[in-house]
Write a structure and sequence with these properties.
This is D-amino-acid oxidase. One of its GO terms (biological process) is D-amino acid catabolic process. The structure is a single chain. The chain is of the alpha/beta class. Helices cover about 25% and strands about 30% of the residues. It has a domain of about 200 residues: 3-Layer(aba) Sandwich (Rossmann fold), CATH 3.40.50.720. The protein has seven helices and 15 strands. Strands 3, 4, 5, 8, 9, 10, 11, 12 and 13 form a nine-stranded mixed beta sheet that branches. A six-stranded mixed beta sheet has the order 6-2-1-7-15-14, with helices on one face. The structure holds flavin-adenine dinucleotide.
Length: about 350
Amino acid sequence: MRITVIGAGVTGLSCALELAGAGHEVTVVADHGPGDTVSARAGALWFPYDVTVENAPDLEKRSLIRFVELAGQAEAAQSEGADDVTDDIAPVEMRRGFLRERLDPPDRSWVPTVTEVLGEDAVTEVEREGAQGAERGVETTLPLIMTPTYLAWLMDSCRIAGVAFRWKTVESLDLLVKGAYNTAPPEAVIICGGLRGGELLGGDDEVTPVRGQVIVFANGSDDEDGDGGEDGGPVLTDWYVDDDDPENMTYVFPRVDDIVVGGIAEVSNGNEDPDAETAEAILTRAEALVPALKELPILGHGAGLRPSRSSLRIEQVDTDEVNIPVIAAYGHGGAGVTLSWGTAERVAEMVEQL
Ligand SMILES: Cc1cc2nc3c(=O)[nH]c(=O)nc-3n(C[C@H](O)[C@H](O)[C@H](O)COP(=O)(O)OP(=O)(O)OC[C@H]3O[C@@H](n4cnc5c(N)ncnc54)[C@H](O)[C@@H]3O)c2cc1C
Protein backbone atom coordinates (compact mmCIF):
# COMPACT_ATOMS: atom_id res chain seq x y z
CA MET A 1 0.00 0.00 0.00
CA ARG A 2 1.20 3.56 -0.73
CA ILE A 3 1.23 5.42 2.59
CA THR A 4 2.07 8.98 3.57
CA VAL A 5 3.16 9.65 7.16
CA ILE A 6 2.86 13.28 8.27
CA GLY A 7 5.60 14.09 10.80
CA ALA A 8 9.30 13.34 11.23
CA GLY A 9 9.50 13.24 15.03
CA VAL A 10 10.03 9.98 16.88
CA THR A 11 6.41 8.90 16.24
CA GLY A 12 6.42 9.56 12.49
CA LEU A 13 9.85 8.02 11.87
CA SER A 14 9.07 4.90 13.94
CA CYS A 15 5.75 4.43 12.11
CA ALA A 16 7.44 4.98 8.73
CA LEU A 17 10.14 2.41 9.53
CA GLU A 18 7.65 -0.16 10.79
CA LEU A 19 5.39 0.29 7.76
CA ALA A 20 8.31 0.12 5.30
CA GLY A 21 9.46 -3.06 7.08
CA ALA A 22 6.00 -4.52 6.49
CA GLY A 23 6.45 -3.95 2.76
CA HIS A 24 4.57 -0.68 2.24
CA GLU A 25 5.70 2.19 0.01
CA VAL A 26 6.14 5.02 2.52
CA THR A 27 6.68 8.77 2.14
CA VAL A 28 7.20 11.04 5.16
CA VAL A 29 6.04 14.65 4.73
CA ALA A 30 7.12 17.07 7.46
CA ASP A 31 8.00 20.73 7.86
CA HIS A 32 10.58 20.13 10.61
CA GLY A 33 13.36 17.58 10.34
CA PRO A 34 13.92 15.27 13.34
CA GLY A 35 16.61 17.47 14.91
CA ASP A 36 14.16 20.36 14.99
CA THR A 37 11.21 18.55 16.61
CA VAL A 38 10.01 18.20 20.20
CA SER A 39 11.39 14.66 20.01
CA ALA A 40 14.92 16.08 19.89
CA ARG A 41 14.33 17.83 23.26
CA ALA A 42 13.55 14.55 25.04
CA GLY A 43 16.24 13.02 27.29
CA ALA A 44 15.05 10.31 26.78
CA LEU A 45 14.25 7.67 29.34
CA TRP A 46 11.69 4.93 28.68
CA PHE A 47 9.13 6.06 31.23
CA PRO A 48 5.37 6.67 30.82
CA TYR A 49 5.39 10.25 32.14
CA ASP A 50 2.34 12.52 31.59
CA VAL A 51 0.44 10.32 29.17
CA THR A 52 -2.88 8.48 29.18
CA VAL A 53 -3.52 5.66 26.74
CA GLU A 54 -7.11 4.51 26.77
CA ASN A 55 -7.71 2.33 23.72
CA ALA A 56 -4.31 0.66 23.33
CA PRO A 57 -3.02 -0.17 26.83
CA ASP A 58 -0.11 -2.36 25.74
CA LEU A 59 1.88 0.36 23.94
CA GLU A 60 4.27 0.85 26.88
CA LYS A 61 5.06 -2.83 27.07
CA ARG A 62 5.53 -3.29 23.32
CA SER A 63 7.91 -0.32 23.23
CA LEU A 64 9.85 -1.52 26.25
CA ILE A 65 10.40 -4.91 24.61
CA ARG A 66 11.68 -3.27 21.42
CA PHE A 67 14.01 -0.87 23.27
CA VAL A 68 15.43 -3.71 25.38
CA GLU A 69 16.14 -5.59 22.12
CA LEU A 70 17.84 -2.54 20.60
CA ALA A 71 19.94 -2.03 23.74
CA GLY A 72 20.96 -5.70 23.57
CA GLN A 73 22.04 -5.32 19.95
CA ALA A 74 24.08 -2.20 20.81
CA GLU A 75 25.75 -3.98 23.72
CA ALA A 76 26.60 -6.97 21.56
CA ALA A 77 28.08 -4.72 18.86
CA GLN A 78 30.16 -2.90 21.49
CA SER A 79 31.49 -6.11 22.96
CA GLU A 80 32.45 -7.21 19.45
CA GLY A 81 34.59 -4.07 19.28
CA ALA A 82 32.56 -1.88 16.92
CA ASP A 83 34.16 1.60 16.95
CA ASP A 84 31.01 3.59 16.46
CA VAL A 85 27.89 1.64 17.32
CA THR A 86 25.62 4.53 16.38
CA ASP A 87 26.34 4.13 12.65
CA ASP A 88 24.14 1.12 12.13
CA ILE A 89 23.07 0.16 15.66
CA ALA A 90 20.49 2.18 17.60
CA PRO A 91 22.06 4.29 20.38
CA VAL A 92 20.05 2.81 23.26
CA GLU A 93 21.52 1.58 26.58
CA MET A 94 20.03 -0.12 29.62
CA ARG A 95 20.93 2.26 32.46
CA ARG A 96 20.48 1.95 36.20
CA GLY A 97 18.85 4.84 38.01
CA PHE A 98 16.90 6.06 41.01
CA LEU A 99 13.32 7.31 40.99
CA ARG A 100 12.73 9.36 44.09
CA GLU A 101 9.26 9.03 45.63
CA ARG A 102 7.66 11.79 47.68
CA LEU A 103 3.97 10.77 47.49
CA ASP A 104 2.29 8.44 49.94
CA PRO A 105 1.37 6.02 48.44
CA PRO A 106 3.84 6.45 45.55
CA ASP A 107 2.68 6.13 41.93
CA ARG A 108 4.01 2.75 40.82
CA SER A 109 1.54 2.22 37.97
CA TRP A 110 4.48 1.66 35.58
CA VAL A 111 6.08 -1.11 37.67
CA PRO A 112 3.96 -4.10 36.46
CA THR A 113 5.00 -3.40 32.85
CA VAL A 114 8.67 -3.30 33.83
CA THR A 115 8.56 -6.45 35.94
CA GLU A 116 6.58 -8.28 33.24
CA VAL A 117 9.27 -7.52 30.65
CA LEU A 118 12.43 -7.47 32.81
CA GLY A 119 11.59 -9.84 35.66
CA GLU A 120 10.16 -9.69 39.19
CA ASP A 121 13.40 -8.31 40.66
CA ALA A 122 13.74 -5.50 38.12
CA VAL A 123 12.50 -2.82 40.52
CA THR A 124 13.89 -2.53 44.05
CA GLU A 125 12.46 -0.35 46.80
CA VAL A 126 15.27 1.57 48.54
CA GLU A 127 15.95 4.08 51.28
CA ARG A 128 19.31 5.72 50.89
CA GLU A 129 21.45 8.66 51.90
CA GLY A 130 21.43 11.20 49.08
CA ALA A 131 23.30 14.49 48.78
CA GLN A 132 20.53 16.21 50.73
CA GLY A 133 19.98 13.50 53.32
CA ALA A 134 17.63 10.53 53.44
CA GLU A 135 15.67 9.80 50.28
CA ARG A 136 13.30 6.96 49.48
CA GLY A 137 12.25 5.56 46.13
CA VAL A 138 13.00 2.75 43.72
CA GLU A 139 16.06 1.65 41.79
CA THR A 140 15.66 0.06 38.39
CA THR A 141 17.37 -0.36 35.03
CA LEU A 142 15.54 1.11 32.03
CA PRO A 143 16.33 1.96 28.40
CA LEU A 144 17.98 5.35 27.94
CA ILE A 145 17.63 6.57 24.37
CA MET A 146 20.31 9.02 23.17
CA THR A 147 17.75 11.06 21.26
CA PRO A 148 19.82 13.22 18.88
CA THR A 149 21.78 10.27 17.54
CA TYR A 150 18.77 7.95 17.89
CA LEU A 151 16.66 10.19 15.63
CA ALA A 152 19.53 10.28 13.12
CA TRP A 153 19.67 6.47 13.29
CA LEU A 154 15.90 6.29 12.70
CA MET A 155 16.22 8.59 9.66
CA ASP A 156 19.06 6.51 8.21
CA SER A 157 17.15 3.29 8.87
CA CYS A 158 14.09 4.74 7.12
CA ARG A 159 16.17 5.74 4.09
CA ILE A 160 17.77 2.29 3.92
CA ALA A 161 14.26 0.77 4.10
CA GLY A 162 13.24 2.89 1.09
CA VAL A 163 11.22 5.62 2.86
CA ALA A 164 11.06 8.88 0.86
CA PHE A 165 11.06 12.32 2.54
CA ARG A 166 9.39 15.61 1.52
CA TRP A 167 10.08 18.72 3.63
CA LYS A 168 6.79 20.61 3.28
CA THR A 169 3.91 21.88 5.41
CA VAL A 170 0.74 19.88 4.73
CA GLU A 171 -2.03 22.49 4.58
CA SER A 172 -4.87 20.04 4.00
CA LEU A 173 -5.42 16.32 3.54
CA ASP A 174 -7.26 17.11 0.31
CA LEU A 175 -4.18 18.79 -1.20
CA LEU A 176 -2.00 15.91 0.03
CA VAL A 177 -4.21 13.32 -1.66
CA LYS A 178 -4.17 15.39 -4.87
CA GLY A 179 -0.37 15.18 -4.93
CA ALA A 180 0.30 18.85 -4.09
CA TYR A 181 3.38 18.02 -2.02
CA ASN A 182 5.25 16.15 -4.70
CA THR A 183 4.02 12.78 -3.46
CA ALA A 184 2.21 10.12 -5.45
CA PRO A 185 -1.45 10.06 -4.27
CA PRO A 186 -1.44 7.98 -1.08
CA GLU A 187 -3.84 5.12 -0.35
CA ALA A 188 -3.67 5.82 3.41
CA VAL A 189 -2.41 8.68 5.59
CA ILE A 190 -0.95 8.48 9.10
CA ILE A 191 -0.96 11.75 11.07
CA CYS A 192 1.99 11.91 13.50
CA GLY A 193 1.98 15.67 13.89
CA GLY A 194 2.57 15.88 17.66
CA LEU A 195 1.13 19.09 19.11
CA ARG A 196 -0.24 20.03 15.66
CA GLY A 197 -1.64 16.57 15.01
CA GLY A 198 -5.28 17.67 15.23
CA GLU A 199 -5.00 20.71 12.95
CA LEU A 200 -5.55 18.72 9.77
CA LEU A 201 -8.67 17.15 11.27
CA GLY A 202 -10.50 20.41 11.92
CA GLY A 203 -8.78 21.11 15.24
CA ASP A 204 -8.57 19.10 18.43
CA ASP A 205 -9.36 20.95 21.65
CA GLU A 206 -7.91 18.13 23.71
CA VAL A 207 -4.28 18.76 22.72
CA THR A 208 -2.39 21.04 25.11
CA PRO A 209 1.26 22.08 25.23
CA VAL A 210 3.04 21.16 28.44
CA ARG A 211 6.27 23.13 28.45
CA GLY A 212 9.55 21.54 29.47
CA GLN A 213 12.98 23.11 29.80
CA VAL A 214 16.41 21.47 29.92
CA ILE A 215 20.07 22.25 30.50
CA VAL A 216 22.61 20.16 28.61
CA PHE A 217 25.93 19.46 30.34
CA ALA A 218 29.05 17.81 28.95
CA ASN A 219 29.44 14.30 30.36
CA GLY A 220 33.04 14.48 31.53
CA SER A 221 35.14 17.54 30.68
CA ASP A 222 38.55 18.46 29.29
CA ASP A 223 38.98 14.91 28.11
CA GLU A 224 41.94 15.86 25.97
CA ASP A 225 43.30 12.34 25.69
CA GLY A 226 39.84 10.96 24.82
CA ASP A 227 39.90 8.34 27.56
CA GLY A 228 36.41 9.03 28.92
CA GLY A 229 36.96 12.13 31.01
CA GLU A 230 39.16 10.88 33.85
CA ASP A 231 41.51 13.81 33.41
CA GLY A 232 38.58 16.24 33.66
CA GLY A 233 35.12 16.31 35.19
CA PRO A 234 33.35 13.10 36.21
CA VAL A 235 31.53 10.85 33.76
CA LEU A 236 28.02 10.07 35.02
CA THR A 237 26.11 6.93 34.07
CA ASP A 238 23.18 6.56 36.50
CA TRP A 239 20.00 8.55 35.91
CA TYR A 240 18.05 10.32 38.65
CA VAL A 241 14.37 11.34 38.58
CA ASP A 242 12.53 13.39 41.20
CA ASP A 243 9.19 14.27 39.57
CA ASP A 244 6.46 14.03 42.17
CA ASP A 245 6.11 17.84 42.00
CA PRO A 246 5.85 18.43 38.19
CA GLU A 247 6.19 22.23 38.55
CA ASN A 248 9.57 21.64 40.17
CA MET A 249 10.62 18.29 38.85
CA THR A 250 14.27 17.38 38.49
CA TYR A 251 15.78 14.74 36.27
CA VAL A 252 19.32 13.92 35.23
CA PHE A 253 19.83 11.67 32.20
CA PRO A 254 23.52 11.02 31.49
CA ARG A 255 23.84 10.08 27.82
CA VAL A 256 27.12 9.06 26.19
CA ASP A 257 28.55 12.53 25.45
CA ASP A 258 26.21 14.81 27.32
CA ILE A 259 23.78 14.97 30.24
CA VAL A 260 20.21 16.24 29.90
CA VAL A 261 18.98 17.92 33.05
CA GLY A 262 15.39 19.06 33.49
CA GLY A 263 12.90 20.29 34.09
CA ILE A 264 9.43 21.58 34.49
CA ALA A 265 5.94 20.72 33.21
CA GLU A 266 4.00 23.96 32.65
CA VAL A 267 0.52 23.18 31.36
CA SER A 268 -0.73 25.41 28.50
CA ASN A 269 2.51 27.39 28.31
CA GLY A 270 3.43 27.57 24.61
CA ASN A 271 6.78 29.38 25.00
CA GLU A 272 9.39 27.37 23.10
CA ASP A 273 12.37 29.45 24.25
CA PRO A 274 14.44 28.61 27.34
CA ASP A 275 13.99 31.12 30.12
CA ALA A 276 16.89 32.27 32.35
CA GLU A 277 14.98 32.26 35.65
CA THR A 278 13.69 28.71 35.06
CA ALA A 279 17.19 27.56 34.08
CA GLU A 280 18.59 28.95 37.34
CA ALA A 281 15.93 27.13 39.37
CA ILE A 282 16.56 23.82 37.55
CA LEU A 283 20.31 24.24 38.04
CA THR A 284 19.94 24.88 41.78
CA ARG A 285 17.70 21.82 42.29
CA ALA A 286 19.78 19.52 40.09
CA GLU A 287 23.15 20.44 41.60
CA ALA A 288 21.75 19.96 45.09
CA LEU A 289 20.58 16.43 44.21
CA VAL A 290 23.54 15.46 41.97
CA PRO A 291 26.52 17.58 43.15
CA ALA A 292 28.85 16.10 40.48
CA LEU A 293 27.10 18.39 37.97
CA LYS A 294 28.92 21.37 39.54
CA GLU A 295 32.17 20.08 38.03
CA LEU A 296 30.82 19.87 34.49
CA PRO A 297 30.52 22.54 31.81
CA ILE A 298 27.10 23.57 30.48
CA LEU A 299 26.82 23.05 26.73
CA GLY A 300 23.44 24.71 26.18
CA HIS A 301 19.82 25.28 27.12
CA GLY A 302 16.59 24.14 25.44
CA ALA A 303 12.83 24.10 25.83
CA GLY A 304 10.08 22.05 24.22
CA LEU A 305 6.33 21.52 24.28
CA ARG A 306 5.06 18.07 25.22
CA PRO A 307 2.02 17.24 23.03
CA SER A 308 -0.33 16.43 25.88
CA ARG A 309 -3.85 15.08 25.37
CA SER A 310 -6.59 13.73 27.64
CA SER A 311 -5.78 10.38 26.01
CA LEU A 312 -3.25 9.56 23.30
CA ARG A 313 -5.13 9.50 20.00
CA ILE A 314 -4.45 6.31 18.07
CA GLU A 315 -7.38 5.42 15.85
CA GLN A 316 -8.79 5.52 12.35
CA VAL A 317 -10.52 8.87 11.90
CA ASP A 318 -13.80 9.61 10.12
CA THR A 319 -13.25 12.49 7.73
CA ASP A 320 -15.32 13.61 4.73
CA GLU A 321 -12.40 15.56 3.32
CA VAL A 322 -10.71 12.59 1.63
CA ASN A 323 -11.92 9.16 0.63
CA ILE A 324 -8.91 7.19 1.82
CA PRO A 325 -8.26 5.86 5.36
CA VAL A 326 -6.71 8.35 7.78
CA ILE A 327 -5.09 7.15 11.02
CA ALA A 328 -4.30 9.59 13.85
CA ALA A 329 -1.28 8.89 16.10
CA TYR A 330 -0.57 11.93 18.24
CA GLY A 331 -0.88 13.34 21.76
CA HIS A 332 1.99 11.39 23.37
CA GLY A 333 2.56 13.96 26.14
CA GLY A 334 5.80 13.34 28.02
CA ALA A 335 6.18 9.81 26.68
CA GLY A 336 6.48 9.96 22.90
CA VAL A 337 9.82 8.16 22.85
CA THR A 338 8.60 5.70 25.48
CA LEU A 339 5.57 4.76 23.38
CA SER A 340 7.13 5.09 19.91
CA TRP A 341 7.54 1.43 19.00
CA GLY A 342 4.20 0.44 20.50
CA THR A 343 2.58 3.21 18.46
CA ALA A 344 4.37 2.08 15.31
CA GLU A 345 3.33 -1.56 15.79
CA ARG A 346 -0.29 -0.58 16.49
CA VAL A 347 -0.42 1.68 13.42
CA ALA A 348 1.02 -1.12 11.25
CA GLU A 349 -1.67 -3.48 12.59
CA MET A 350 -4.40 -0.96 11.79
CA VAL A 351 -3.03 -0.62 8.26
CA GLU A 352 -3.06 -4.41 7.84
CA GLN A 353 -6.74 -4.43 8.85
CA LEU A 354 -7.79 -1.77 6.31
C1 LIG B 1 11.82 18.67 27.84
C2 LIG B 1 11.17 17.39 27.38
C3 LIG B 1 11.63 16.17 27.85
C4 LIG B 1 11.04 14.97 27.44
N1 LIG B 1 11.55 13.79 27.90
C5 LIG B 1 11.00 12.61 27.47
C6 LIG B 1 11.52 11.36 27.90
O1 LIG B 1 12.48 11.30 28.67
N2 LIG B 1 10.93 10.22 27.43
C7 LIG B 1 9.88 10.26 26.56
O2 LIG B 1 9.38 9.22 26.16
N3 LIG B 1 9.37 11.44 26.12
C8 LIG B 1 9.89 12.61 26.56
N4 LIG B 1 9.36 13.80 26.14
C9 LIG B 1 8.16 13.80 25.28
C10 LIG B 1 8.48 13.56 23.81
O3 LIG B 1 9.49 14.45 23.42
C11 LIG B 1 7.22 13.76 22.94
O4 LIG B 1 6.15 13.01 23.44
C12 LIG B 1 7.53 13.28 21.52
O5 LIG B 1 8.65 13.95 21.03
C13 LIG B 1 6.36 13.49 20.57
O6 LIG B 1 6.83 13.04 19.32
P1 LIG B 1 6.01 13.21 18.00
O7 LIG B 1 6.80 12.59 16.92
O8 LIG B 1 4.61 12.73 18.22
O9 LIG B 1 5.91 14.80 17.76
P2 LIG B 1 7.05 15.84 17.34
O10 LIG B 1 8.39 15.41 17.78
O11 LIG B 1 6.56 17.16 17.78
O12 LIG B 1 7.03 15.78 15.76
C14 LIG B 1 5.96 16.30 15.02
C15 LIG B 1 6.29 16.28 13.53
O13 LIG B 1 5.11 16.59 12.80
C16 LIG B 1 5.40 17.56 11.82
N5 LIG B 1 4.16 18.25 11.46
C17 LIG B 1 3.11 18.58 12.27
N6 LIG B 1 2.12 19.13 11.55
C18 LIG B 1 2.54 19.15 10.26
C19 LIG B 1 1.97 19.60 9.03
N7 LIG B 1 0.75 20.13 8.96
N8 LIG B 1 2.70 19.48 7.91
C20 LIG B 1 3.95 18.93 7.92
N9 LIG B 1 4.52 18.49 9.05
C21 LIG B 1 3.83 18.59 10.19
C22 LIG B 1 6.49 18.41 12.45
O14 LIG B 1 7.22 19.12 11.46
C23 LIG B 1 7.33 17.30 13.11
O15 LIG B 1 8.20 16.74 12.15
C24 LIG B 1 9.95 15.01 26.53
C25 LIG B 1 9.50 16.24 26.04
C26 LIG B 1 10.09 17.42 26.46
C27 LIG B 1 9.58 18.72 25.91
